[in-house]
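#structure-requests
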Amino acid sequence: MKMWIPVSMMLLASAALHGQAVPTAEASSASGPSLSWIDGTVHYSLGISQLIQDGLYQSGNVTGSTNLTGSAGYASMSKDKPFTMLYSGGVLFNTGSNLGTTTFQNIVASQGLIRGKWTFNVSNSFSFLPLSPTTGYSGISGVGDLGTTPISGPSQGPAGGVLTFEANRISNTLSGSVERRLTGSTSVYGSGSWSILHFLDQQAGLNTTQISGQAGVNHRIDARNSVGANAVYSTYSTDENSFFGEAANSSFQTRGLNFTYTRLWTRALSMDISVGPQWINSSAGTVLENQLNVAASAGLSYTRKQTSMGLHYVRGVNGGSGVQTGALSDTVIGSVGRPLGRHWMGSVSGSFAHTSQLLNLSAIPGETIPANTNVSYKTFYGGAQVTRGLGRSWSCFMSYNAQNQSVDNGLVGQNVFSGFSQTFGFGITFAPRSTRLGEF
């Protein structure tokens, strides 16, 4: 009996978002009534899980959480108007912590339009979380969604990065792009995005807004090699930062010029590299000096049937995760997901980041700014999950997640996690096979 693991639902919904092949998920072959371009494939899952957390809210404090979770995905079958949507959310019944009963919500949607030599896309990603996101599509450790590569969870958005303690927050990224093929091998493109990170609890973090735009050109040398170049301009702004004595709406800007190279080694293995200078300018010149850095990224991706692997490095400026008014981070992210047998699936993922503040501050004796306040953070989080199929629609899982963050010269009163915590999780999931929309 062939097992269907809920991860397949995530992979299907991500296909149109990321342009990657998806493993068969036992979709029904019956055509059903015609629904024109809105016809597509629908997946959903429901789950219940139990978490045991050590040191998540306070060192040495053991807490627990019983969770009811669900997810739903839709992928249209239209070739010229591709649309995908993926939702993940749930209720967390916490014990032993100050959170009480909380919820988490994540939804991402993408609409494309292909007309001749033109390709348009608009997408939006929204999340509501009670704490900093880490592993899985939901960003909540231990709820059973580890291994959803190549989907990027909220930890890769404006809410990710430096870990903070519990605090309700929302993040949203709205983006659009357009591409025009000039020849069979060359295209030009432009894109723009607007991102926010907003804390709903007072004094929990800095509210941040980022606006970015870029334009570039891609050229395919041959079937395996492509090169390109792009120019990027971004603005970052935060609300009042009482720690640094900054006025409201302090901001800085970055400009970059990047050169890219993509190599398709095999049908399953690909590599991408991007590197270039990044200039930083600020409205707060006394504490954030103009400077020049290097922005870079490199990655390896492998996808074949139900096996996926990825290793990526990213260096560049970001909004500061609600902790700093801008930061420079070096981040390494790795993940592996593959079947371990006819009824088993294993997934491992991890991230390490070294983050340094952009602000250049002098000590103010007796105030919130101590000596040597060039703050830096070393952040690690990762997890492993084993899933066992119990039939066509049911599966169970066990998981282990850990996070550790060290802070050099932290500022007094900041809502920053420091130390080590671990989470043990187990649960059961109901996920029927995918269904054509026309069959309901």
